[in-house]
Design brief:
Blueprint (H helix, E strand, L loop, with lengths): L1 H17 L2 E2 L1 E2 L9 E3 H4 E2 L8 E4 L4 E5 H10 L2 E2 L8 E6 L5 E6 L3 E6 L14 E6 L16 E3 L14 E3 L1 E3 L4 E8 L2 E9 L3 E2 L3 E6 L5 E8 L2 E4 L1 H9 L9
Parallel strand pairs: 1-7, 15-20
Antiparallel strand pairs: 2-4, 3-5, 6-8, 8-9, 10-11, 12-13, 14-17, 15-16, 16-18, 18-19, 19-20
């Protein structure tokens, strides 16, 4: 009788594990306030979706896959992790949320060779190739995607490079004197204007002719230079202008 009671108790203790809800890890996830929950990481979390397992301070949080698996199991969820994932990197997304990157092993990525302040222009020597355990989904595979771009926020030395770190560099600032060129059919004319708005290469901006005081639109092509007429129309149509790189 004693053995039967012990066996029954063992079955009762094991029953939650047997009834665990299978879940799958999301490839893309987001959180609104830096609180990472089981529902942020797993599809099918159900009533356990609101269970907090970590907090994200800054744009990135790295979670140990074993810890996540244990937390899920305690909440009545079963994540098999058949792929042998070791870490889950949760990154801040463009909407203030986060995008998850699943890490399966060391990968070679671009990283910053030095710390960069907001507004600095990324130079070729600022980038190095390094091996890391986590590869964000928007890590560029070509340094040209970053060189010449403006840093959006302070970046620390050794951080993995992300396209979210940078934006097109402004080559014309409000109040700058700008040389505006018109070319068509062998005719070339240049006038001087004062920029009324800032612009990166390829952006359309407004400026005022310093002689006639007329306000016109032009397309920025470099520091202090812009074009109007057919060339500007072609740049607007292509939306793929040659990026100015401060080297």
């Amino acid at each position: 009788m004693k053995r039967l009671l012990l066996a029954a108790c063992a079955l009762l203790i094991a029953s939650p594990a047997l009834a665990a809800q299978p879940v799958t890890l999301r490839f893309d996830t987001s959180d609104e306030d830096g609180r990472i929950t089981l529902g942020d990481l797993f599809d099918g979390a159900g009533a356990a979706s609101s269970v907090l397992i970590a907090t994200r301070v800054g744009p990135t949080a790295v979670l140990d896959a074993g810890m996540v698996q244990s937390a899920a199991r305690r909440a009545g969820l079963e994540w098999a992790n058949s792929q042998g994932i070791r870490r889950i990197v949760v990154r801040q997304g463009p909407d203030g949320g986060a995008a998850a990157t699943i890490v399966r092993g060391n990968v070679e990525v671009l990283a910053y060779a030095r710390s960069l302040a907001a507004g600095e222009i990324v130079q070729p020597q600022d980038l190095i190739w390094t091996k890391v355990a986590a590869a964000p989904s928007d890590t560029p595979g070509d340094a040209e995607a970053l060189i010449g771009m403006s840093v959006r926020r302070p970046l620390r030395q050794g951080a993995v490079a992300s396209l979210r770190d940078v934006s097109a560099a402004q080559v014309i600032k409000t109040g700058d004197q700008v040389a505006v060129t018109f070319e068509d059919g062998g005719i070339s004319l240049t006038l001087q204007g004062k920029a009324l708005t800032a612009a990166a290469v390829g952006d359309t901006f407004t400026l005022q002719n310093t002689v006639s005081k007329k306000v016109i639109e032009a397309v920025a092509v470099g520091p202090g230079s812009a074009v109007v007429g057919p060339q500007a129309q072609r740049l607007r149509a292509s939306r793929n202008p040659v990026r100015y790189a401060a080297r």
